[in-house]
């Protein structure tokens, strides 16, 4: 199981509980993970923000354009509708330094919770992800990592290193979950099916 499968499963369950949520998938990788089954497809040009609820869209931009990304995020915020914004690969939101991300995304991170907008920030390269993806995270899910730096950093985030754990040692379907502002340490889950009923 990978992050895309996990995110899609999470979103499906969220929509069962809150069908009025809008879902925006920002798919910068174009590797076939997202299709019209996940929402109306917009290729190249960013989609408009929805003025009412219950819509799904997939945006696949041709290139990483900081200004276009910023407008996309600000439009979602200004629409004021509860939403899930799924950034499939947050590394592509970083333009140079770790804190140089689209201005609209910075504002969405800090102001989006009030109208009920939540960001799902996925990445396979934790070390290169924007700083805000870590500092603003209310929930963190960690799958197996091969990069030693990433693994060490995530063990710290999960508060497992201080308990003497040196590796994640996760099997195929397993992952750790932590709410950094609440939990003492990350909790191991064996599957997304085990996880979802406990958090939604």
Count of individual helical segments:
6
Global Rg: 17 Å
Question: Biggest sheet, in brief?
Answer: 5 strands, parallel
CATH C-level label of the largest domain: Alpha Beta
- Class computed from helices, strands and strand pairing: alpha/beta
Through-space gap between termini: 20 Å
Mean pLDDT: 91
Number of domains: 2
The percentage helix is 25-40%
CATH topology (fold) name of the largest domain:
Rossmann fold
Q: Write down how many β-strands occur, each being a DSSP E stretch of 2 or more residues.
A: 8
The name of the CATH architecture of the largest domain is 3-Layer(aba) Sandwich
Succession of helices and strands: HEEEHEHEHEHEEH
Strand content: 15-25%
Low-pLDDT stretches: none
Tell the overall outline.
globular
Give me the side-by-side strand order of the main sheet: 2-3-1-4-5
**Could you state the oligomeric state of the chains shown?**
single chain
